From TrEMBL:
PANTHER family (alphabetical): CERAMIDE-BINDING PROTEIN SVF1-RELATED, SVF1-LIKE PROTEIN YDR222W-RELATED
Annotated region described as Disordered, given as residue ranges: 273-293, 318-343
GO biological process assignments: response to oxidative stress
Cellular component annotations (GO), alphabetically ordered: cytoplasm
Organism of provenance: Pseudozyma flocculosa
Predominant location: cytoplasm
Compartment list: Cytoplasm
Full protein name: Related to SVF1 - protein with a potential role in cell survival pathways
Pfam entry (one): Svf1
Length: 467
């Protein structure tokens, strides 16, 4: 949650908001690459800490669903927020739906370094590794090509972490599109000198193992996870008005290791397509509902599907805010759709009682990195969330986070006045079924059948930042 304080710098509007409304001032990564070129291989530099200044918030996040059904996530947050010295936090969350046990810890890190200093344990020159007085995260690759992060942390007298996330060499990590601009959406009329940017890089699956020591008791950390390295090169309240994140993980009898992940955000009214309009076709296609500034919002949706431990599709879609629910997204049917929305009296938002996630992308040829647009891979799931209010009626609720409640009262009042936002994060963990559709061209495990119903676990976040 570090980075919200960056709203305090500057005006409520954005640097790009004064650009002429007759031209777009947002370049979505989902429009920068053709559907046959969505897969971007991860280079070493993609996972290195940039530790940038200005209003940049950078995170590394590891998620895992443990073998006993519990959920755990660790995150390191490097936030410059316009200050002379960056703020670095490490957070940890654990939730066991069977026992109701929840652990939440956030600590301010001191003496953060990436890469670790020369006398630190492990590789000293690798900027994918980091170290602080409270934790060490070491990136290593074994002789079989498996990449791994080993996390050791002492977050409190009664909470220690010692576990490893391993990406098998046969499961490709990815960003959307190859090259230095792969994965990057740019804010501002000039992509060469943007107001800001957003980028995500993923390990769609990872195996977790090790232990979480809580109050002297060891919790087995063996499970199915994923990893994401994300950067917001701009104040977060100007990046998006809402987010959706889905992380489905399963081990299926017929298809082996299956995963479907999705990251989606909708721009604020400060950034979007040109005033006036209907959908614009082409490399910067966008459409949306007119806002007070004259901008029309855009929704950027990226994701991937893993079958039998192999990355079989990377997905990308752009959608206009004005588009009707039954109108398809541009280039792909991928989207997150909030259903049966109702007022949550805790937050004031119209929150969904269920969410439908749809993935639609070309079959990936791992050897060439190209997608076959004539051979589509599809996946869909609908998760029943129950009522958002009261919280006791929400199915699988891990947390409903009032972001402003996490910061001091005086700061909170200033944020409300300056930014005019009221951010809430809903987090849920539920068993669900993913329907996977494989094309005739697919030649891997499960190729005999076109459609498979895969039972697994979904961790999701739907976030509201502004109306």
């Amino acid at each position: 949650m570090s980075g919200w304080g960056s709203w305090l710098k500057g005006e409520a509007g954005s640097a790009g908001a004064d650009a002429t409304a007759s031209a777009p001032n947002f370049q979505a990564v989902t429009d920068a690459f053709q559907q046959d070129a969505l897969y971007g291989p991860l280079e070493k530099s993609d996972l290195e800490w940039t530790c940038a200044g200005g209003f940049t918030t950078e995170t590394q996040t590891w998620y895992t669903v443990l073998d006993d059904g519990a959920f755990a996530t660790s995150q390191i947050i490097h936030s410059a927020v316009g200050l002379w010295y960056p703020q670095v936090q490490m957070t940890f969350k654990y939730f066991n739906p069977k026992t109701g046990v929840k652990i939440w810890k956030s600590v301010n890190a001191s003496k953060f370094a990436a890469p670790p200093t020369a006398n630190a344990a492990g590789p000293s020159g690798d900027k994918r590794s980091s170290k602080a007085e409270q934790f060490t995260v070491l990136f290593q690759t074994d002789d079989k090509g498996n990449d791994a992060y080993t996390i050791t942390a002492n977050l409190d007298a009664d909470l220690q972490l010692s576990y490893t996330f391993t990406r098998p060499s046969e499961t490709l990590g990815w960003k959307l599109g190859a090259g230095p601009k792969g994965g990057m959406s740019f804010f501002g009329a000039n992509a060469g000198s943007p107001d800001g940017y957003v980028v995500h890089r993923f390990w769609p699956i990872a195996m977790s193992q090790g232990h979480i020591i809580a109050k002297g008791q060891a919790i087995d950390a063996k499970g199915q996870g994923m990893f994401v390295h994300a950067i917001q090169g701009m104040r977060p309240n100007l990046v998006a008005s809402k987010w959706n994140f889905a992380n489905f993980q399963a081990d299926d009898d017929k298809l082996g290791r299956v995963a479907a992940i999705m990251m989606e955000f909708t721009t604020t009214s400060d950034y979007g397509s040109a005033k006036g309009g209907s959908q614009i076709q082409g490399a910067q296609a966008s459409s949306g509902a007119p806002a007070a500034s004259g901008r029309e919002t855009m929704t950027v949706n990226i994701g991937s599907i893993v079958v039998d431990g192999k990355l079989v599709s990377v997905t990308a879609a752009t959608r206009g805010g004005k588009a009707a629910d039954d109108e398809p997204s541009q280039r792909s049917g991928s989207r997150a759709r909030h259903l049966d929305k109702t007022l949550d009296q805790d937050t004031g938002y119209q929150a969904p009682q269920s969410i439908r996630y749809t993935w639609d992308g070309p079959l990936l040829d791992a050897a060439s990195g190209k997608g076959d647009v004539a051979a589509k891979v599809g996946a869909e799931l609908t998760v029943d969330l129950g009522k958002p209010y009261p919280s006791s009626e929400t199915h699988g609720l891990v947390d409903k986070v009032d972001v402003l409640a996490e910061i001091p009262y005086v700061v909170r009042k200033v944020v409300n006045v300056v930014a005019g936002t009221k951010p809430y994060i809903y987090q849920t963990l539920n068993p669900t079924t993913l329907s996977v559709q494989l094309p005739e061209q697919y030649g891997g495990r499960g190729k005999e059948e076109r459609t498979h119903e895969v039972k697994g676990t979904l961790f999701e976040e739907h976030t509201f930042i502004s109306a």
